[in-house]
Amino acid sequence: DPASPYFLHVFDQLGSPLITQFLVGDNYSTWRLAVTMALEAKNKLVFINGIIQKPVTEPDASAWLRCNNMVTSWLIHSTTPTIANSVMWIQNAHEALHDELFSYRTAPPCTCGVLPNLTSFLDEDYLMDFLQGKNDSYASVCSQLLLMDPLLSVNKAYSLLLQEERQRSLTS
């Protein structure tokens, strides 16, 4: 059904960019507008704005995964290689756009001394979002990471999860 958000046209390809204007760092606003229009035209905007969450039952779960991977691939191939390397590790298209928006926001000037606390608060939220997206088999590791005081950065948590994954692959 071409009206379904799970419909993929025969010309939809994983390696093709969604738009011709790549995200280079200082053009986020125009890039985002072009991506939004292109995804809306392809009936895939619902994967970016979070309207369609990952279903838990088949056949919708497989269809969602296939389309989510397609949208994520389009986003990756619509950015410069340095940005694409960071987007590549995002597990769903909704997070990919959220992550890029977050990385281009700058904090307003602060003279009251609250900015470090706000930054810390946002970093904690970002860590929580990152850890919530992990597979249930990592639940105990994620719990241990959340018990650390002070909380780790997302990069450090990612590094520790990679080490855990390597250890698991060696023992299996």
| Average pLDDT score | 78
Tell me what portion of residues adopts beta-strand conformation: under 5%
Secondary structure: number of strands: 0
SSE string, helices as H and strands as E: HHHHHHHH
> Number of helix segments?
8
**How many domain modules?**
2
Low-confidence stretches: none
Distance between the termini: 42 Å
Radius of gyration: 18 Å
The dominant shape is globular
Structural class: mainly alpha
What profile does the largest beta sheet have? Answer: none
Protein name: UBN2_3 domain-containing protein
Ordered list of secondary-structure elements with their pairings:
Blueprint: H1 28-41, H2 45-48, H3 60-76, H4 81-87, H5 93-104, H6 115-132, H7 139-147, H8 154-171
Task: Jot down its keywords.
UBN2_3 domain-containing protein, mainly alpha, 2 domains, 172 residues, 58% helix, 8 helices
What does this protein look like?
InterPro entries: Copia-like_N (IPR029472). It is a single chain. By secondary structure, the protein is an all-alpha fold. The protein folds into two domains: 27-104; 124-170, no CATH class. 58% of the residues lie in helices and 0% in strands. It has helices at residues 28-41, 45-48, 60-76, 81-87, 93-104, 115-132, 139-147, 154-171. The model has no long low-confidence stretch (mean pLDDT 78).
